[in-house]
Amino acid sequence: MEKVRKCLEKMSLKKTLVLLFVISLASVMILAIITIWIASDVRQDILDKRPIIVLDYSEHRVENDQDISGPEGFRVTVNDFQYGSLEWKDQAAYWTAGVLMAALPTVYAAAAAVITARIYYRIKLRTPFQLLKTGMEHISDQNLDFQLRCTQEDEAGMLCRMFEEMRTEVYQSNSRMWEMLQERKLLTASVSHDLRTPITVVKGYLEYLQKAEKSEKLSEEVLIRIISEMQQAVARMERYIDCVRDIQNLDDIEIRKEPCRMIDLKADIERSFSLIAEKRGRKFQIQDHFRREILYTDRDMLMRILENIFDNAVRYSKNSVILRIEENTENMSFTVKDDGNGFSEESLQKAEGYFYSSDKENGHYGIGLSVSRVLCEKLNGTISIYNDKNGGACVRLRLKNSEYSH
């Protein structure tokens, strides 16, 4: 029975309904034929019990000859007769058999329809409907943290899987929105925290100038130094505000994927990054392990991500920076490795957050990895950071094959 059930679960709704209808129709026809046959025999047996009343008959002599066997005598021929009345019990039984003969097939058809509907509902519709009802109840309660698992391969199962895909998309969308809200909160907190220092500096110098003006002890040299310090503090605030504006404007960037020759991309990276490394007194090397000739992506976006990552790597390196380009069956990866001290434990936990930097005192606001992460998400890629086992920090950009193939 279980095998039959599983077989029906794999069939489409239409095929299952037709199959159950054919089975029920055949069953009704067989039962109806058996019922009519039995009722007819019963009625005939009842009729055979009726007495026979002879109304007219004739007699004739029969001689024994070679054509007629039997003794010589008379034969009676019934010319007219009629049946007598049945007893009331036999009459009731006769009409009851007739009613059953006509009514039972209808009862069989109705019962078969009900049974077929129940079987069809239990096998094909009950589980999907219960799952969908449960899912709607969760959604009405604003709860998307659940799963619908339906093993049926028919249209109802497909509907459940589509509902699950929709729930997953909405859940991921809400999760991304929640993460964005959390990041905006972190951004606001970061702005409040990091702007406090230059503002405090400016306020302190302003208070000092007011006191010095009253005491008339402000020399020109001190005034020039104070103005210079205030200008530096204001410049720091301007740079930080520019960083905030850059992050906010990233959402408006459009992705334009076009075919890009890998050999040309490698040449541009080598030329640009070598100049940056040379200005910082660093060595730059590319290690290429790819066979793909064409990369279908937004070249400018990819270059901007790599430039941000490379700028951080050069800043914290000691002597050299290596860019390793690799390809496997799943993705294309770009890994930037420096020979510096590597990421600290705090940096590994927070370096991908907005405006985190372990070097803010020197004017580095952590914008590089933040921008790179947002841009990488627009390319449907991922960025991961880790420390190389031989020392130094590594930042890896991965693009899935399904995203960069064309």
Labels describing this entry:
406 residues; alpha+beta; 5-stranded mixed sheet; two-stranded antiparallel sheet
Characterize the structure shown.
The structure is a single chain. With 406 residues, the protein is of the alpha+beta class. The chain contains ten helices and nine strands. The strands form three sheets. It has a five-stranded mixed sheet with strand order 4-6-7-9-8. The two termini are 49 Å apart. The relative contact order is 0.06. Mean pLDDT is 78; it is low at 358-366.
**What's the mean pLDDT score?**
78
Number of helices: 10
Main beta sheet strand tally, sense and closure: 5 strands, mixed
Quaternary state of the chains? single chain
Radius of gyration: 47 Å
Strand order of the largest sheet: 4-6-7-9-8
Instruction: Give helix and strand order, one letter per element, not per position.
Output: HHEEHHHEHEEHEEHHEEH
Overall SS class: alpha+beta
Low-confidence stretches: 358-366
Shape: elongated
Beta percentage is: 15-25%
- The amount of helix comes to 55-70%
- Number-wise, the strands total 9
Q: Compute the separation of the termini in Å.
A: 49 Å
How are the SSEs placed, and which strands pair?
Layout: H1 2-10, H2 13-47, E1 52-62, E2 73-83, H3 88-140, H4 155-215, H5 220-249, E3 258-261, H6 262-279, E4 283-289, E5 294-297, H7 299-316, E6 320-327, E7 331-338, H8 345-350, H9 367-378, E8 381-387, E9 393-400, H10 401-404
Parallel strand pairs: 4-6
Antiparallel strand pairs: 1-2, 3-5, 6-7, 7-9, 8-9
Short description:
This protein has helices at residues 2-10, 13-47, 88-140, 155-215, 220-249, 262-279, 299-316, 345-350, 367-378, 401-404; strands at 52-62, 73-83, 258-261, 283-289, 294-297, 320-327, 331-338, 381-387, 393-400.
